[in-house]
Amino acid sequence: MLSYALLKWAHVLVMGYWLGSELVINALTHYIVRSTSLPADERMRLWDFLLDVDQHVRNAMIMSVPLGFSLAAYLGLVPIAGVSMGWLWILSALWFWYMWLVHWRRKSPQGATLARWDWRLRYLLIALFAGSALWSLVTGFPYAAPWLALKVLLFAAGMVCGIFVRYYIREAYRSALPAIAAGRATAVDNAEFALLMRKGTWALVVLWMLLFAIGALGALKPAFG
């Protein structure tokens, strides 16, 4: 029971870490958008700092996976235990390492290739989580409780929101950010940058709603049917 309580505490802490990081990133994003009077190098330094802070979101997302499945295993709701649970933690650690590798090498010649594989990995995981959750809602396997299957499905949806945020950031690199970094941004460039970041904010709003719903399902464990 002590191990379960510690895991539960860590899982709740990670969810708070995730939400808090998202709020900080969103505030900093819109500060950078509005700071059109700053010198270009200072504005880009703030943008690089924002990307560093954004890693906290990824930290929390990845850590929530083995923590959540470990809690479910304690309740006997997933067919993962012993060696298979150990492999889940190892694979999560490898994902964590690769996520940081992509960040550290983003400005290197290998950066674009690493990022592409990062996107592909996320597509695969979204399909795995969503597919297993939907299958469980129909058959009751591999997640023995409908509320747990819904949590996994909402987590997959949250990962989709993250993909949308990264898409808008990528679009900013293709359109407005080169001019901003060069110190020749026009009103059109700044407006385009602001529009893309607003679209990213809407994806974040959906993600926040999903995270609150995930937390509620975990706390209430509602019965269905």
Task: Explain how this protein is built.
By secondary structure, the protein is mainly alpha-helical. It has one domain (2-220). The chain has seven helices and no strands. The chain has helices at residues 2-34, 40-74, 83-104, 111-139, 146-174, 177-181, 187-220. Helix 1 runs antiparallel to helix 7 (187-220). The protein is elongated and about 60 Å long. 22% of the residues are buried.
Number of strands: 0
- Which consecutive residue ranges, at least 5 long each, have pLDDT under 50? none
Total number of helices: 7
| Content-based structural category | mainly alpha
The overall pLDDT average reads 95
The major sheet is characterized as: none
Strand content: under 5%
Could you give the order of the helices and strands? HHHHHHH
CA(first)-CA(last) distance:
29 Å
Instruction: Compute the CA-based radius of gyration.
Output: 19 Å
Q: State the share of residues found in helices, binned by percent.
A: over 70%
